[in-house]
Amino acid sequence: MLKTILITVLVFVVIFALMAIGVFFGRRPIRSGCHAAAEDLHLDCAAGCQKPCFKRKLHQTLHKLLNKNSDK
Predict the structure, then answer these.
(1) How much is the pLDDT for 66?
(2) Could you please report the per-residue DSSP string of 52-65?
(3) Which of 3, 7, 68, 72 lies 20 to 30 Å (CA to CA) from residue 18?
(4) Which element (helix H / strand E) includes 43?
(5) 3 to 6, 14, 35, 47: CA distances (angstroms)
(6) DSSP strand E in the chain: where?
(7) Model confidence pLDDT, tens digit, residues 21-59
(8) What residues contact 39, with CB distance under 8 A and at least 6 apart?
(9) pLDDT score at 11
(10) CA–CA separation, 30 vs 51, rounded Å?
(11) Which among 44, 22, 24 is positioned nearest to 34, based on CA atoms?
(12) What's the pLDDT score for residue 72?
């Protein structure tokens, strides 16, 4: 009986450890700010997002227009 309980606890600990290792090695760094947005849109903004490039301004304008139309 004690052997069965010990094996069961050991199996749960091993499964929990494997999940923790998977989370630790599988996570990605948090991407925020306009650099991540520019990368997602495949834009090359040389000004470091201090001054948005033309493609970024165009995308922002289109996004605002589409959101206004979808609210109606």
Answers:
(1) 80
(2) --HHHHHHHHHHHH
(3) 3
(4) none
(5) 5, 16, 55, 65
(6) none
(7) 998 888 776 666 666 666 666 666 554 556 666 677 777
(8) 31
(9) 97
(10) 23
(11) 44
(12) 53
